[in-house]
Amino acid sequence: MLKKSLENILTPQESQELISSFDQIGDIIIVRIPDSLLTKKKLIGETLLNEVKIAKSVFYQSSPVEGDFRTRNLENIAGEDKTETEYKEFGCKFTVDVENAFFSPRLSTERERISNLVQDGEIVVNMFAGVGMFSIMSAKKKKCTVYSIDINPIATKLCEKNIISNKIVGNVISINGDAAKIIHDQLENKSDRTLMLLPERSDEFLQSAINATKSGGIIHYYSHIHADKKSNAGKLSEDHYLQVTPVKSEILRSKIVRAVGPRYYQTVVDVKITK
To answer: Which of 8, 163, 237, 268 has its CA 20 to 30 A from that of 170?
Structure first.
């Protein structure tokens, strides 16, 4: 849609360089623009604003998601300069801040998968919860208790707001702080199911996830894997997990969550541990 709208404005070479996909989160659009087209970023922003009727803001993502708080720099290139919006997914509604707290619309399928796996009566520890989407979707669907941890205070505040708006106060407990310390102080051997949604640092926090999880419990271990063939990514992620884990583990399944670059994938391995 974007390339077609700009075909009379961009040269054929520029059109080829244009990244036509973008993220739409509520009434906010986030677009990535190659350096060669940054002089036309306002034009790209206005075009998107005109084409996507419910959009009120368009932002250019000028930095990757990075740092302990998992935030990114966004530059307003069209419409309102606001980064907070309401987002709906599978019957839940969330207030998100697309610049100041981690959120990805591209994890919706994985959020639904996890919420379907959670069982009534489970205690779940979500170690890197962001605004609480995995936590809240699970607690809305099943009678479970979720400890929803994030080190970013803005993410924690938004999670608390989302707990109230989804009417699950008491089922999701939002905790601000470092997941490893919180598990050590409060949550050792409490979890039936532990989520590790920080793929770039999963090895660093694996022992904390094991500490949180009861013997016989399940860990969802996310990682980033290079694979020459897409079909090999799941098996490579299983092999990597088995190399780094210090406990007896039964692999239940593995899968690609999404592509994050050329021959580079975010994967998940679901494992049942015995301590």
So the answer is: 268
Sole residue written with tokens 């894997």: 225
Residue listed under structure tokens 């970013």: 152
| Number of other CB atoms surrounding residue 34 within 10 Å | 10
Do 25 and 97 form a contact (C-beta atoms < 8 A)?
Answer: no
- The model's pTM is 0.94
Q: Where are the domains of the chain?
A: 2-82, 107-274
DSSP string, 143-176: S-EEEEEES-HHHHHHHHHHHHHTT-BTTEEEEE
Class of domain 2-82: alpha beta
pLDDT for 166 equals 98
The span from the CA of 271 to the CA of 266, in Å, is 16
- Say which CATH topology domain 107-274 has: Rossmann fold (3.40.50)
